[in-house]
Structures are given as C-alpha cells and as structure tokens.
Amino acid sequence: MAEILGFGRNEEGILAKPWTLVPEALPRAACPICGSERFERGPKGRTGPTGVPPRCAGCCSLERHRAIRLMVEALVAVDFKNWDALQFSEEPTLDPSWFRAFEVSVYGGSNSLDLCAVDRPDDAYDLVLCNNVLEHVADDRAALAELTRISRPEGFVILAVPDPLFREATDDWGYPDPEKYGHYRIYGRDFEPFLAAVLPDHACLSALGPDPVSGVTELAYFITESPQTEAALMAALPGVTSLNAAKKPGVALHR
Ligand SMILES: [Zn+2]
C-alpha cells in the first residue's frame, strides 16, 4: 500500500486526511482533455504526491484542470450550447466549442479584466471559471462579489483555490509575494465558511473529484443563485457537499 497525499472529509465534513491506494490500482489514464499519454514535470519541476509527473505534454493541463474537466463533463443535463462563458487565465479545463461564446481574460494581456472591478454588465455570463486566481488578488471579497454579479442567476461560477483543506486557517500576508507564486494569501479550511458568509444569497457547493492521470483528488466550488441549478449540480457532481447546509435544515452534508 502506498500512502497518497490526497484529501477527503471526515464525518464533520471539513478536515483533510490522507488515504491509501494500491499503487497497481492507480489509473494509467490518458489525458481526459486531449488524449495525450505523455506527462512531464509540473511548475518548479514538481511531481505529484503520487509520483506521477503532472503536466500533460499535449495540452499542458495539471491535476486540477483534468479533475474539473471531468466534473463539468458530469453535468450532462446542462446544455452549454446557448451559454456564454468567461474564464480567468489561460487554461485547458473548458472546451470553448461547448459554448455559444467563450471569453478569456489573461492578466496583463489584451483582454485583461480586473477581477475586483470587472468591466462587464451584470448577468453577462452563464458560466465563469476562476481557477487558482483568487489568491492573486488583493481584495477577495470584492472579487467574489464581482464573480457573482457578472453571472446570470441560472448559471454558475466554478471557483478553485490551492488546497484549502490542508491547513486550518487562511494566512494572508497582504502583498503578492514573488517567493510564493505572487499569492497574497494561502487559504485554509476557514475558506468554506468565508465563502458561505460572503455570498449569503448563493448556494455554494464543493465537489471532490479525481484526476485520472495522477490519482489525486481535487476540490472545486460551484456557486449559483438558482435553486434549480443547485439541484442539478447536487445531483451530478462527484463528492458534492453544500457549504450552506448549516443554514438549510434538511439538506444532507454528504451524498
Ligand atoms: Zn492533455
């Protein structure tokens, strides 16, 4: 048995814990985004906790891109053909051809949107993807308000931040530290109650799904204003938990 530094939730639904997998049982999957079977070391030369080099040589995807791709593909009941999407930063998680319109904001690029003051009207998009960007902005409350402002009520925001279940409390040092990938902070387990508190009028769901290449589990948040969309997400997403459950008696923590 090899110990895998993945994480899950205990019965209280919040704590990180390692689990074990038989190495031979680790999947030898091709990249679910581009089909490549070649993988290379990731940022700063890292391998993943399972020892598998994480970056796809075909599409440059990492663990979180592939895991979230599979989460979105699980939403078979959602017809993206008439949806307009916005994604912050260049990454291969979503397939632009799924959508009616697909816009990418690249920091410092020709279409750079300020996440804390997005130069777009209310309800401009059906889906907004913000994957490992929030830790790069000074005012994360303003960013969350903007992400939900520009999203239509029936749509949703997909949000991910680096490994928020690995530490108890968020450490915010207040400037973009070049030694730490330019992050303002590293989020902890208080991120989930923070999300629910900052967005009291939205359903905030967390999903835990595998990257089939490395066997690592990744976490993403799905945020919507619509009870119908919330129900569709709850029915389809892997490892889904409602962060608002404490406020809504009768909603189960685990599925
Ligand atoms: Zn790929």
Could you describe the 3D structure shown?
By secondary structure, this protein is of the alpha/beta class. It contains four helices and 13 strands. Helix content is 15%, strand content 26%. The strands form four sheets. The protein has a seven-stranded mixed β-sheet with strand order 6-5-7-8-12-11-13. The longest helix has 11 residues. It starts with a strand and ends in a 13-residue tail after the last strand. The N terminus and C terminus are likely disordered. The structure holds zinc ion (ZN).
Quick rundown:
The protein is α/β, with parallel strands linked by helices and 255 residues long. It has four helices and 13 strands. The chain has helices spanning 63-73, 140-149, 191-198, 227-236, and strands spanning 2-4, 19-21, 39-40, 55-56, 84-88, 101-105, 125-131, 151-160, 171-177, 183-186, 203-210, 217-224, 241-242.
